[in-house]
Design goal:
Low-confidence stretches of chain A: none
CATH class of the largest domain in chain A: Alpha Beta
Order of helices and strands of chain A: EHEHEHHEHEEHEHEEHHEEH
Distance between the termini of chain A: 29 Å
Radius of gyration of chain A: 20 Å
Number of domains of chain A: 2
Number of helices of chain A: 10
CATH architecture of the largest domain in chain A: 3-Layer(aba) Sandwich
Oligomer: homodimer
Shape of chain A: globular
Strand content of chain A: 15-25%
């Protein structure tokens, strides 16, 4: 009997629905109590070797690409897979939804189908591994661009609530991304948000955090406006890959490939951004996860695992 | 006979004037045709073992700290070392100035003493090593926060001119830091700047660059508003240090310290942000370099070397 039902949108990713289907298969294999609602081409799903008794199919072959305007999609394209998937999430007993398509369309869909009674604007966070044993939730990573200081305070609350659950801790430390640690540093938005956060009840505000300390484990929640947060998220991943690439080059140059690959394996595991389920939409009724467009099957399985853990309130530390 | 004269401000750095003095000593040793104007406590300089026949002293013991307001300093504190150093740069035949103090005060001083006839607002860039053999000049890294789209176009010109000299190339590729590669991605500022840059004459615009590709060698000039640019600069350095720290931990854990330190040495040399002279002020009459506050003597010597190379128009590639 299925204990957890999760909706997966098969369309819109870089590697095509076949790869996401592989992720669905891996997930069903790994989690016996899982059942899925798959949104995508019915023929393709039926032709796969998935255990179809644990799969519900919503047939759909329309998607929103990264070149489409996601706001237009809201009005014109109600029959696209991301909206069908979010509608199914809202109307069923599914615990959440996973996709690897257009982020804008997903957020528009979250507003359409999954707003809370407070009607908070959803934001997108990423749980990132730090150099300590802890994790930092970076919020927002690109959903709320050009937002105001009160939204940054809202991000602090949403991130704190989320990390309380995810880490099983009482009072997550909240930092504010800035260009200097002193309260006088920042752009206009950050200076205003700093004042508000320092006064805000229920927030354990530890002050400004600079970009070099984003993953130093000084806070469990790192608040940022979406454009700057996106830079930190992508730059962190890019730099980790740059260094790993250089190490591989070094191994080839010096003929020490075997030793080097051991270190690479260790680093890939320590800084495996994909294992933590990529982006998570906060501030809506059920968790929605956005894997990156280039996600492989393993990333989908990891997202499924994280969603199950979230619904169980199982601390991330148990896996560390 | 001294061929190059450089001004160095000894005050305002985290490690104190003794460390910057050591950097001055290293530089005089390494470059026989160098002479220095040192701004700092006369007693300290005279008590050092510097070749005083190649040193001019401007006695000063007042500085601007990171907690001081740099704009206030402009009006109130004309007798601080950074202003004396910039005044000496403007009035002497020095080829440029090096310091490791308060960035804001330095920029205010550049406006006061070194504006060009066009009276362009100065910006701060950093030359960063990429995964290819090339370099990327990130401009602005934190001097121009909350600026407008036309300023980003100005940064593109200043960065292009600088990289033409530094790399000895005809037409540096200019990228615009954004949260997506498509022209429709970005905050309001970036979208406007994208349009302007696409139309701008004399700029080899290659479009938006995401944070993960900041150091992938896709452009020689990466244009960013100062707050976002600061995130990329500091996050890149922070992540490089995070990975290097993890590799050292791995070496200790596995008893492979010797092998690991070889790799660390290689990475430190490939991603040595300090060796490229830290921040450089563009858009003023003479080059002014800002080493980070925590700079050691070696960083000062590297800045001196880069400034000499700049004045000789010697391509950076010659050292690579």
């Amino acid at each position: 009997m299925a204990k957890y039902k999760i909706v997966i949108d098969l369309l819109g990713s870089d590697k095509g629905p076949e790869e996401i289907l592989k992720g669905a298969a891996l997930s069903l294999e790994a989690f016996p109590e899982l059942s899925l609602i798959l949104v995508g081409p019915e023929d393709l799903i039926k032709a796969s070797n998935l255990p179809l008794d644990r799969v519900e199919i919503i047939n759909c072959d329309k998607t929103v690409t990264n070149y489409d305007n996601s706001v237009d999609a809201f009005y014109k394209a109600t029959d696209v897979s991301i909206f069908k998937a979010l509608e199914a999430t809202a109307k069923s007993d599914a615990i959440g939804m996973i996709n690897a398509g257009n982020t804008g369309a997903m957020l528009v869909g979250c507003i359409k189908y999954l707003l809370t009674e407070k009607r908070t604007r959803p934001c997108l966070c990423a749980v990132m591994p730090t150099v300590t044993k802890s994790f930092t939730c970076l919020v927002d990573t690109g959903a709320s661009i050009d937002c105001g200081p009160h939204q940054l305070v809202e991000f602090a609350h949403l991130g704190s609530e989320f990390m309380k659950k995810l880490l099983g801790i009482e009072s997550p430390r909240v930092g504010l991304l800035s260009n200097g640690s002193e309260p006088t540093k920042g752009n206009k938005l950050v200076k205003e948000a700093h004042h508000l956060l320092a006064e805000e009840e229920g927030i354990n505000f530890v002050g400004n955090i600079e970009g070099n300390n984003a993953l130093s484990g000084q806070c469990e929640v790192l608040v940022a406006e979406g454009f700057a947060g996106n830079q930190v998220l992508k730059n962190s991943e890019g730099m980790a890959m740059n260094l790993i690439t250089e190490i591989v080059k070094y191994g080839k140059k010096t003929g020490k490939e075997a030793e080097v690959m051991e270190i690479v394996g260790y680093l890939m595991q320590r800084f495996d951004f994909e294992s933590l389920g990529a982006g998570i939409v906060l501030g809506i009724r059920k968790p929605v996860m956005k894997c990156r467009g280039s996600s492989g099957a393993k990333a989908i399985k990891n997202a499924v695992k994280m969603m199950i853990n979230l619904s169980e309130e199982k601390s991330l530390y148990e896996d560390r």
